[in-house]
Structure formats: C-alpha cells, structure tokens
Amino acid sequence: MTESVQWETIDCPVCSSKNYRKWRTVRDRFDVIPGQEFTIVNCEDCGFRFLNPRPDIESIGIFYEPEGYDPFLSTKDKVSLTDSMYSMVRTFSLWRKRLLIEDFRRSGSLLDVGCGTGEFVRYMQDFQWEVAGVEPAERAREFVASHGIQVTESLGKTPDNQYDVVTLWHVIEHLHDLEGAVKKLAALTKSGGYLVLAMPNMESYDAKRYQENWVALDTPRHLYHFAESDTVKLFSSTPVRLIDTRNLWLDTIYNVLYSEQLYHRWEKKRYRPFFILNAIFGSYVNDWQQSTRQASASVYILQKEGTNA
Ligand SMILES: [Zn+2]
Questions:
Q1: Within a 13 Å sphere around the CA of 185, how many CA atoms are in the beta-carbon half?
Q2: Ligand 1 centroid to 39 CA: how many Å?
Q3: How far is the CA of 12 from the centre of ligand 1 (A)?
Q4: What is this structure's pTM?
Q5: How far is the CA of 44 from the centre of ligand 1 (A)?
Q6: Which residues of 264-296 are buried (b: 16+ CB within 10 A; e: fewer)?
Q7: pLDDT tens figures, 95-107
C-alpha cells in the first residue's frame, strides 16, 4: 500500500520559508499503513507547524477510509447508548455553534465549507438562515442537495462577495492548498461579513501534556497545527482580521480521553486517572488564573473590512 502513496514536500504555507526542522514524529491513530510514522516540522522563520513531507492530494484519500471517519455514521439506523449520548452532544454542539454566530450576526446568508451531510446547514436553515455548502465527497454532496440546499464541489466553484457568514468547523487543517483557500475564503465573504474557523489549538493544555500522543495531531489527515498567532499571520495579506477567539471545552474532554487511549496503546502503559483529570480540569484552572486560552480547540471569529449593507 505504501507504494500507492505519493509524497510531496512543501515550503511553509504561512510565510513561504524553506527553513524548517523536524519537530515531532507521530503515528496514525488508524494505522492505515501499519507502522508508518509521519513527520511534523517547525518553520524556523515563523514557528508554524505542519506535516512535511505529506501524502499528495491524490493519495490522501486512503487515510480517510477507516470506519471511524465515515461521515455517514450519523445517519445509520441502529441506536445504542453511545449513539444517543453522541446525539445529545451533537444537538448541544449545533445549538452552541448557532449562538456563537448569532452573537455577531442574527440572520443572512451562510456558507458552510466542508459541510459533510449538511447537519449544520440544515439546522441553520430551520432558524431562517439562507444556507449553502461546499463538500468534495460526492455521496455526502448528493445527500445535502436532496434537501434542496445549494452545494458545490469545491471552494473555487463558489461565487465571491456572497456570504454574510462563512464557517469551517474542523476543516481548514485538512486542505492541501491552504494559501489558495485563505484567499478564496476572504473573497467569498461580503464586506463586513464574518469568517468562523474552528480547529485544534496547539497552545492548549492537553496538547502540551500529551505531546505526540495528542489525538488532535491526527496525522496524516491534519496537515497543519495552528496556534492563534498562526491564524492571524495566515490572513495578514487579506482584508480579514481576527476579532474574537472562543474555547471549545467539549473538545477538551473528548481529546483527553482519546489521547489517553493512544498513550495506553502506543506506549503500552497503564491508564492514568489523575493525569486525565488534570489534563481536563487543569485547563480550566489555568484559564481562570491566567486568563489564557487553553481549550483543546478554538473558534476564531474573523471579520472582513468594510461595512455590511
Ligand atoms: Zn513559516
């Protein structure tokens, strides 16, 4: 299977530097290619961390095939206790996303990039938002379209200056053409409109505690590992500016529990109940004491210059 993967080496996608050094070697939690390790590098000029070399865009597909990654899992009929808990968390999470957006804008047009089966856009439509989606996976796209929602295959096929709010929920870290995506995202958004980006937080307490066992490194599916300062730099050449950052605390609980499993499996060590509690609650305590942003994932709210009619 290794022969079928084409690798590519890239310059720093944030500052174009060719100077980087190895930061960490990380395994794939699904072990798609048994024993394969992946290298995350650190840019010597701007500090950004990214997967390098990485499977090219034609090869990455095989790493999305494991069952744990199927976007259709949520539409299956069998309902277990885990499924109903998952469904509760999902409803809570949709509600939370909507409230977050409505803190900035109460109505208008919304584009969800990487919309999957359209759970979020369908939910927002119920609250009178005019919704559209972008989804490269054909089956998921057809499913969304069957609900009467406009959905395009790629960012490039989406019209500019069209949306009051553009959302990417855990999507940007998967995009091969990051520089192209950043330019296009800025163009899609109307003047005065908002860009809402959720992604794992490299500066989180649990990321530091779990190091190479931190599940949100998710090599090789996550191509980039952002801290808040990287997000600011990424958009510095566009008319889009960071205006607020929010914590996703639910992600912390999930990521800590999953990271501990990886530690147990990969390091062949016992589970550490106190370490787990500290990794989860330490981030709250630190946050309160130092007012730093330390949840496992962050939502960045950016706004495009200009006024919205
Ligand atoms: Zn750089």
A1: 29
A2: 16
A3: 5
A4: 0.90
A5: 7
A6: eeeeeeeeeeeebebbbebbeeebeeeeebbbb
A7: 999 999 999 999 9
